[in-house]
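[stage:ingest] chain + small molecule (magnesium ion)
[stage:ingest] validated
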Amino acid sequence: MRQSKLFTKTIKEIPSDETSFNAQILIRAGFVDKLSAGIYTFLPLGLRVHKKICDIIREEMNAIGAQEILMPALTPREIWEKTKRWNNFDALFKLVGVDNKEYALGATHEEVITPLAQKYIFSYKDLPVYIYQIQNKFRNEKRAKAGLIRGREFSMKDLYSFHTDKNDLDSYYEVVKKAYFRIFKRCGLGDITYLTYSSGGAFSKYSHEFQTLTKAGEDIIYICDNCQVAINREIIDEQKVCPECGRENLREEKSVEVGNIFKLGSRFSDSFGFKYTDENGKQKEVIMGCYGIGPSRLMATIVEIHNDEKGIIWPKEVAPFLVHLLYLKSAKEEVKNTAEDLYRKFNQANIEVLFDDREDVGAGVKFVDADLIGCPVRIVISEKTINQSKAEIKKRDSKEIILIDIEDVVEYVKELMC
Ligand code: ATP
Ligand code: MG
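[stage:predict] done
[stage:export] tokens:
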């Protein structure tokens, strides 16, 4: 991608109507634009990152046997009446159609997936089934001050599993737990994301959240350093003890919930009369689990954690481009030609590169932009480097600058990052 053609530009000033760090920096660096409180547009750079996060999630979901679908975001009132959530789901956005029928914008999709699964699942032979989607959700959130951490429209991956019994749910639940840890690790949040016990509803004592430590978080958790798990403050009644080892000395931290997993049991299958026939011809209720992750919240969380005073430092798997190639304007034609040539070679090698080919922008601004945008590797081609037949290479997360022979650059970057 040529930066001269990029639709957006970086912004110098911190947007005055935005208080959260993640949104401020994502707006300044040209990843997102704010339309209204809790409502954002994903611009070319931001959409690339969002897509990479979604693709990581997809890979890990497909690897545990889940199949992707896409459900509608517009949902009729009746289905919410069935589960008694039309009046009990505070954040539901409601609207009226020309037919005077009432609708809600999808805030979650148990009400859609349950009757959908019911159309295809009849017998124990049809189970288990794992279905997910990645889609925008709508919630009339009261607090929309945390930028993309709490949107009114935001993306969610929601997986639903259907089982013959509790044991089968229990074992898939553990499989999903592991997949979630792989996802957060690949997004650069591995070491600071804790499996967190929270209240579980009627079917199980606990559900689990995946909480990432950050001062931008709106949750408080208590960590057990023995077991590397945490417990959410919201569920602690009297005494703070580790649910796994009983330890009392827990560490308090601020965190953000990047995902959660929940054993629903028959809460939703009961509402829709969703049963299957077992081996003995008996009708039994289908047992369900649900598992959410917020890709847009994840993107904001990554930014809250991976940054310095100059800008974002993207982990390589989610970076908009692996390489930011900077051409510093020179009267010597050879400089531009070498940069153009290198740009071609990166593209041929399938290494994603953002090429700052702008003629009307000075070196200082190019360096500032590169730090703000935060691609993992910066490569500079200038008169100075060309005079030595070299390119200058710097990793975004390091101060060290090294010079590499022009013809070795692509190979060098491959070895460094791939
Ligand atoms: P929270 O307690 O933070 O409001 P939640 O318990 O309502 O989250 P779920 O309804 O289970 O969350 O949604 C699944 C996932 O979707 C969450 O783990 C989170 O990653 C994401 N998510 C939920 N609400 C929002 C929001 N308003 N903006 C962005 N992401 C969200
Ligand atoms: Mg919520």
